Amino acid sequence: MTRNVLSITLVLLFVLQFALLLLLALGQYWQFPQVLPTAWATDALARVLAADSGLLSGLGLSPGLSTTVAVIATGLGFVIARAIAKTARPNRWITLSYLPYALPPVLLAVLVQPAIISRRLSGSLGATSFSRNITA
User: Counting beta carbons within 10 angstroms of the beta carbon of residue 31, is it exposed (0 to 12), middle (13 to 18) or buried (19 or more)?
Assistant: First the structure.
């Protein structure tokens, strides 16, 4: 019985997120005391789904970029882990691997930003991958 209640609650929470998203996409002039929007329209949704909105290019770029990063990070992680496992003192390298977690990301970004600016990489793919690898 408890399992059924938990399952129904989880499914309900999952569905309610999409219902709220649909309400926000279709509702207009939704102010605080009202439970539901007073006006409904599909023009905002039509603008998002239009060919010139850039949604399709973004949906194609995001999985492509994330797949590329995942493949490169997994490959490099395998190579580095194998190299660490074959060293005489792997505990030293394992201890050093916790260093990025010890430094706050904001401090690390402030320290890395001058290097990125001096190399004229600000706003480029190289700077993004450089800062992601440093902070990850």
Answer: exposed
pLDDT, average across residues 47-54:
79
**Chain length of the chain:** 136
- How far from each other are the two terminal CA atoms of the chain, in whole angstroms? 43
Residues 121, 71, 114, CA angle at the centre, nearest 5°?
20
As a whole number of angstroms, the distance between CA 136 and CA 91 comes to: 20
**pTM > 0.85: yes or no:** no
Question: Over the range 54-79, which residues count as b (16 or more CB within 10 Å of their CB) and which as e?
Answer: eeeeeeeeeeeeeeeeeeeeeeeeee
Amino acid at 128: T
